[in-house]
Amino acid sequence: MGRPAPLRLAVLCAALAMGAAVQAQSVALSGMMGGKALLLVDGKPPKSVAPGETHLGVKVISVAADEALVEINGKRATLRLGESPVSVKGKSSGNKIVLVADSQGHFIGPGRINGQSMQFVVDTGATVVSLGMNDADRMGINYKNGEPVRMSTANGNSNGWRIRLSSVRIGDVELSGVEAVVTPSSMPYVLLGNSFLTQFQMTRINDQMVLERRY
């Protein structure tokens, strides 16, 4: 009966090792410290992480003035100062999105941006994903730190901001670091433009639009 102690110790060590390997569920950029990113992972105290280093399953790839490119669960995401945390719930195994046309022939469906619910409409004429300032404000996106852009609309020219969304998710499919534009006007839907769509093969089947992930 004197032998089980080392076995119990080995089991405990294995359990601790497994716990350490658990991937982060929520990651945000709280600041920059020299050439390091100050990461908030799962609500734990901020940790400065240099490019090439990993903290709680989050690997920093590169840093810039107000953003950091990280890799989580094999997927890359751009974290920006002031933006909502990236929500990570393991690898997404989905590779297909099915959208159904409404009475006017528009393909509309629910999804999430940076973990928050949105309604999308497919717009193959839009270069990038486009969302209104009202939705960006609701999500707490600091879009005015993005790149100013001049936009042409039906009502004339206006100013917008080019940003990158931490995540865009529809159904079981999620993309990270999606280029987008925030418009100064309110919009009833988020326009699902080509910065998202070009990563899929699109097929029209009667009143359905099937998007299959390209690999």
TrEMBL record:
Keywords: Hydrolase, Protease, Signal. It holds the Pfam family gag-asp_proteas. InterPro entries: Clan_AA_Asp_peptidase_C, Peptidase_aspartic_dom_sf, Retropepsin-like_bacterial. GO terms for biological process: proteolysis. Residues 1-24 form the signal peptide. GO terms for molecular function: peptidase activity. This is Aspartyl protease family protein. The lineage of its organism: Bacteria, Pseudomonadati, Pseudomonadota, Betaproteobacteria, Burkholderiales.
